[in-house]
Structures are given as C-alpha cells and as structure tokens.
Amino acid sequence: MTTECLFCRIAAGEAPADVLFEDRDVVAFHDIRPVAPTHVLVIPRKHITSLATSEPDDREILGKVMLGVHRTAHLLDLVEPGFRTIVNSGRGAGQTVFHLHVHVMSGRAWTWP
Ligand code: 5GP
Ligand code: ZN
C-alpha cells in the first residue's frame, strides 16, 4: 500500500468515493470530474503506477481490471449505447493520478482519434 496515493486510499476506504462495486482485487467508482454522463474509473487494489510499469506477474490482476470494465458496462447498461475506455500512461499522455485506472465513459458522442 502506498498511502500517499489517492487511489490506494480510495481502495482502502480511507478516502471518500462514490463506489459502484468492489471485490477482492478491483474497485470501480465514479470520476469526481466526469467528462461524460457516465464516467467510472476501474482500478486494481494493488498499487500499479501505470501500464508502463506493470509486470508479467500482474497479468491476473490486469485481467481482473478488464473484467471490472465488463461488470461496469453491464451494471450501468452501457453495452447498447456503447462505451469508451481510456488508459492514460504517463504525464505526456494526460495521466494525472499515478495509480493504474481504466476510464469507462458513455452517454455522449466521441470523435476518433
Ligand atoms: P488521469 O488523468 O490520470 O487519466 O485520470 C485521473 C482521473 O481521476 C481524472 O478523470 C480525475 O477527474 C479523477 N480524480 C482525481 N481525483 C479524484 C478523486 O478524489 N475522486 C475521484 N472519484 N476521482 C478523482
Ligand atoms: Zn496507489
């Protein structure tokens, strides 16, 4: 546990968050500054800084985070409208919280790229 990490504190219940669900390995909560009508963050309880620092031993937890995205999509009925997932890795890509998180966003139009 990295106690100075905001998302570790949320995962531990030491910082407030609007939690959608949690299990042994994963926590999903609503983003405090949503950029879409639905904007959820799915995180591992384990402190992993980003995809760039994840390791082969993290394969199981990374899979569980992705299944957390699946669970989020079904819980919030996002399958039919569709949803966008983003993982920012590194400051240059827009990462501001250095605990791995998957953004799950829905309810608005998107452009690509
Ligand atoms: P990043 O920019 O690192 O990809 O995404 C970090 C996200 O965390 C941002 O969308 C930001 O709004 C969200 N965030 C930052 N602080 C908090 C907080 O204290 N609570 C919640 N629920 N979300 C936060
Ligand atoms: Zn952390």
**Ligand catalogue:** guanosine-5'-monophosphate, zinc ion
Helix content: 10-25%
The CATH H-level superfamily is: HIT-like
Low-confidence stretches: none
Morphology call? globular
Q: Please compute the radius of gyration using only Cα atoms.
A: 13 Å
Largest sheet: 5 strands, antiparallel
Structural class: alpha+beta
Mean pLDDT rating: 97
Termini Cα gap: 35 Å
The strands making up the biggest β-sheet line up spatially as: 1-2-3-5-4
Strand content: 15-25%
Q: Return the CATH architecture.
A: 2-Layer Sandwich
Return the CATH topology: HIT family, subunit A
Q: Give the tally of structural domains.
A: 1
Run of helices and strands: HEEEHEE
Count of helical segments?
A: 2
Give the key terms.
binds zinc ion; binds guanosine-5'-monophosphate; single chain; HIT family, subunit A; 2 helices; 113 residues; 5-stranded antiparallel sheet; alpha+beta
Descriptive report:
With 113 residues, this protein is an alpha+beta fold. Helix content is 20%, strand content 21%. It has two helices and five strands, in the order αβββαββ. It has helices spanning 6-11, 59-75, and strands at residues 19-22, 26-30, 38-44, 84-86, 102-106. The protein starts with 5 loop residues before the first helix and ends in a 7-residue tail after the last strand. Bound molecules: guanosine-5'-monophosphate and zinc ion.
